[in-house]
Amino acid sequence: MIKKPLIITFVVTFNYNMKKVLVLGSTGSIGNNTLNVIRNLPGQFKVTALTVNTRIDLLKPQIEEFNPEIVVVKEEKPAEELRKRLNGKIEVLSGIKGLCSVASGCEYDIFIGAMVGSAGLAPTIEAIKRGKRIALANKETLVVAGELVNELSKKYNAEILPVDSEHSAIFQCLAGENINQVEKIILTASGGPFLHNSKNDFLNATVEEALNHPNWKMGNKITIDSASMMNKGLEVIEAKWLFNIAQDKIDVVIHPQSIIHSMVQFWDGSIKAQLGLPDMKLPIQYALTYPERLQNNNLRTNLPLIGQLTFFEPDLDKFECLKIAYAALNTGGSAPCVLNAANEVAVDKFLKGTIKFSRIPYIINKSLEKIEHFNQPDLDIIFQCDKLTREFAAGLS
């Protein structure tokens, strides 16, 4: 008796709905967490492009794991070094031109705007012009050019979803609600490492102390912004453009536990809040999968273990940067652009040890006084204001 050969059939299934993702700023805190989310949702996403500023040592293992089609290194010298290491295995672009090129030409469905600073503006606009979903963590894009970005997103039917935990919380609270019935948006702030310090303590605050955030692990720039509360000021401006809401309807409250990520109060007096542990993977996943909520293995919030939630009014005399940000938003036009550029320069100076922490608001105020104001700046004027502000602020101490 001749036995028939055993035939084993392998059935391979493909997820044709797999979303393609471009990660702008893949080695930073948001970028790394984005890749963690993608890693933990196998079969849902394909990374097609990664970009970094300079950190090619961190980028190379990401390339090996996620196999993107193209990468961009903003600075030319490390870009050239990466080309040598990869030996032609993958295309490596560089500079702002490279960032814009990948945003305008690479194949992707979702653009993760995780690059820190105003350098993320130009490539984000390229993604908007292609009508892509923009998962926006780069708050400077809306701070510097919020009105312009909103106009372009409407024109090209691009979807802008917030990744900041506070704005994601507001976005989630507004689901199914009428924005016209919102009485106020309440942004929560941890208060940072200097919540219980006096303003006089800022004179001798060290970089190490300012980077010692009690709840969040973030990049250096955003952590210093949290210490000065400029981060919350930038978020106030961002919220105005994300949710098309008047400045006087945006409040800030200090909530040291960072469990309530933000709230929305409606005109009937009810308040909706979004709660969760201080973990950026949650808002990142929501922006990637919206409107779906996919199951994950992240840690869950245990309210009895937390015990209590407390709230305080921010001290605008001590946290002067928050006060300045409100004023810049009220002025409008190019003022938020100047505010942002001056703050980036001042934070960099503080991190390098060339100014004291207390000089950050001084540099911002002086820049706002000096740089010419434009009521309705176009993109060219925005870039010009950014450049002039950086040159002026660089000369202050």
Spell out the blueprint of helices and strands:
Elements (H helix, E strand, L loop, with lengths): L18 E6 L4 H11 L5 E8 L3 H11 L3 E4 L2 H11 L4 E4 H11 L4 E4 L7 H9 L3 E4 L3 H16 L3 E4 L2 H9 L8 E8 L17 H4 L9 H9 L1 H13 L7 E5 L5 E7 L4 E5 L5 H9 L13 H4 L13 H12 L3 H17 L8 H11 L8 H16 L3
Parallel strand pairs: 1-2, 1-5, 2-3, 3-4, 5-6, 6-7, 8-9
Antiparallel strand pairs: 8-10, 10-11
Helix pairs in contact: 4-5, 5-6, 6-10, 6-14, 9-14, 10-13, 13-15, 14-15, 14-16
What descriptors fit this protein?
397 residues, Rossmann fold, 7-stranded parallel sheet, 4-stranded mixed sheet, 44% helix
Provide the helix percentage: 40-55%
Number of helices: 16
CATH architecture of the domain at 19-162: 3-Layer(aba) Sandwich
- The amount of beta strand, in percent, is 5-15%
* Poorly predicted runs: 1-14
By DSSP, the count of extended strands is: 11
| Global morphology | globular
Instruction: Record the strand order, biggest sheet.
Output: 4-3-2-1-5-6-7
**CATH superfamily of the domain at 19-162, please?**
NAD(P)-binding Rossmann-like Domain
Q: Classify the fold: give the CATH topology of the domain at 19-162.
A: Rossmann fold
Structural class by SSE content: alpha/beta
Q: Report the major sheet.
A: 7 strands, parallel
Mean pLDDT: 94
- Which value, in Å, is the CA radius of gyration? 22 Å
CATH class of the domain at 19-162: Alpha Beta
